Structure formats: C-alpha cells, structure tokens
Amino acid sequence: MDFKVDREEPVFSISTAAKLLGISIPTLRMYEKEGLILPFKKESHQRLYSEADLERIRCIREAINQKKISINGIKAIYSLIPCWEVVHCSEEDRKICGAFNGDEEPCWTYNHPNTVCENIECRDCIVYKNYSKCGTIKDLLKNITGKEI
Amino acid sequence: MDFKVDREEPVFSISTAAKLLGISIPTLRMYEKEGLILPFKKESHQRLYSEADLERIRCIREAINQKKISINGIKAIYSLIPCWEVVHCSEEDRKICGAFNGDEEPCWTYNHPNTVCENIECRDCIVYKNYSKCGTIKDLLKNITGKEI
DNA sequence: AATAGTTGATAGTCACAATTATCAATTATC
DNA sequence: GATAATTGATAATTGTGACTATCAACTATT
Predict the structure, then answer these.
(1) Which tens digits make up the pLDDT trace of A50-96?
(2) Of B64, B66, B67, which to mutate for an interface test with A (greatest number of A Cβ within 10 Å)?
C-alpha cells in the first residue's frame, strides 16, 4: 500500500467531500461542469473524491476566494499548461488537437481522437494530476525552459 | 518612418484614448494601477497612449468582458510569461527576482534591482510589448518548448 | 419495500468586481 | 491670466459571477 495510491484512491462521496470542504454539493458539481475537476465516477455515474481531489479543490477555492481569480481565469491558466511537452505528443497530434490549439479550456476537457492521449483517462494523466495544484504551473514552465541552458 | 514605430508612438491623451475605446478615464487609470498597462508618461506625469496601447487594452477588455476572466486572473496569466527566457537572465538574477519567483503579478510591475532588467524601461521590453496581446502567451510557450524537439 | 443519498437541471440569492461619478489640486493651452 | 484637461483619491453604482436551495427521477443501502 503506497501512500500516493491512498491519496489518489477515490473514497469520499459527494456529500462527505462537500462537508470536508465546507461547501455545498451543487458547487462541487459546478466545478466539474466547468472542467476544473474530474472526480472518479462509478458505473452508476456516482462521483467519488480522493484526498488528492480535495487538495486540488482547496487550491481552486483559494484561487477563487482569496486570489480573486474567476473560474474562467483558472480555466485559461490551466489551458497554458504545456501538455504537449509533458505527454510528448507528435507534430501531427498537435495539428489536430483542440487542447494544443485552444487557450480557454484545460486540455482534459477535450476529447483527443487520433492522438497519443486518445486512450488515456485524463484523471490519471500527469498533466491533470501534477500541474494543477496552486503554483505548480509556473514551476513546470521553469523546468521546461531551464533544460536549454 | 517605420510603421511599427508609429504604432508604438505615444500620441493620444487619456481623454482621447478613453473616447476611442468607449470607456471612462478612471477605468484606464484603474487598469494601470492594477499593472495591466504601462502608458507612456511625460515629465509632468501626464499619460500618453499609442495605437499599440489601444490594441493591448482592447485585448484586456475582451478578456474581462467576453471571456469573463477577472483582472486578477489576467495578472496571474501575465505572471506566467517566461520572461526569464525572453530576456535571458542569469541564475543569480532569478534567485533575487520577484517576478521570477512570484505568480500573481506581471513581471513589469516589479522593480528589478541588480538584474539584467535593472535599467530597462519595462514599457519598451519585449516581454511587455510582444507577449501581452490576446492569445500570444501560449504561442510563446509553444515556441520555447518546441525548440527542444 | 422503505429510507437515505444521488443524479442533472432550474431558479434564486448575494457579495463584490468592474465601472463610473465626483472631488480639489495641478498642469496644459490659447 | 483664464479655460480646459489632467492628476490622484474616494465614494457611489451596477452587473453578474459564485454559490445555494430546491426539484423530480434515479440508485444505493438496510
């Protein structure tokens, strides 16, 4: 039993998650509809949230309520994550990928037919998991650009 | 007389700029106070706006009013511009640079003592001029990351 | 089979971000 | 030297984004 696995294990129902976060259930659904979060879903369409999901949502809430960044602002920021670099997609992939070519929605809100992301569950993708916490996006950019020196 | 120079020539007074943009004067001052724009200033502290400034402001307004990105959201997006890569600042510069280490304010809102940016007028800097129009930030990231392939 | 929790969706509330109005003091213009 | 425009600052306005309440239909649990 790895700790990281536990942190990513979807165990909390939506009511529990809402209680732990101190917010309402419709708010959680709204964040999802906006493409900010991708909770795990059972076959019955019921949502389950992991500890990592909760932390992610806390970061989102901090951005909204403390930093006063609007939801569309957060989406635009997420859309700047250089996913193409992280998943190493090809030139042809980039040509047809809505995520690569757009700048308003996070990559994980797109379908990715005929690309390297085609069969990847975005919830399990490094792009979604690693670079969506508060402040890690700029760190990612630093790492990527730093390689050239 | 180069066309680009004309476009960057500060010629419009604040009242003319406001009229051309269809907004009020206090709004223009507010954008400046928030660090979104850096109009030219005469010795008498009077502002002058260029054609390029107007275009920039139109992009900002589109982000705010159409894309529904809050001002703080735009600031956070600007803060992700990899200025360190554009101006080629040193490792030591990066250690002490507020712009490099923050993620809430655009680099041009900082002082840059003891760095390569120290004596550069931010209004004339490529980072401010080139990568602040609608949609060019992601293009910049693509160019930078693309170099490695 | 009955209770509790979930689903998506619509409608309502409310705080506050974005904008404007207005001010006295300063500066430009003629 | 008088008029018009600017300065920074504060107060007032307003549109709406973030959030919640509530709904009937469905699913899980006992």
Answers:
(1) 999 999 999 999 999 999 999 999 999 999 999 999 999 999 999 99
(2) B67
Distance CA A97, CA A99 (A): 5
Would you state the pLDDT for residue A88? 95
Q: Is-contact B25 B15, C-beta < 8 A?
A: yes
The pLDDT, as a whole number, for residue A147 is 59
Domain total for chain A?
2
Mean pLDDT, residues B87-101: 96
Is the pLDDT reported for residue B149 higher than 50? no
At residue A1, the pLDDT reads: 58
Q: What's the domain range around A4?
A: 1-69
Q: Are B63 and B77 within one domain?
A: no
Among residues A69, A94, A129, the one where a domain terminates is: A69
Mean pLDDT of B60-64: 98
Name the average pLDDT for chain A.
94
Nucleic strand D within 7 A of Cβ B70: yes
Chain B: give the shortest CA distance to residue A91, in Å.
10
Six token digits for residue B118 = 């120290």
Same domain? For A79 and A29 the reply is no
A102 plus A138 within the same structural domain:
yes
CA-to-CA distance for B47 and B14, rounded, in angstroms?
A: 6
Query: Residue A76 and residue B69: Cβ atoms within 8 Å?
Result: yes
- Name the minimum distance, in Å, from the CA of A77 to any CA of chain B: 6
Assess whether A75 and A63 both reside in one domain.
no
Shared domain check, A47 and A24: yes
CB-closest option in A72, A85, A135 to B145: A85
B27-58 in b/e form (b: 16+ CB < 10 A) is ebeebeebbbbbbbeeeeeebbbbbbbbebbe
The verdict on B100 and B45 lying in the same domain is no
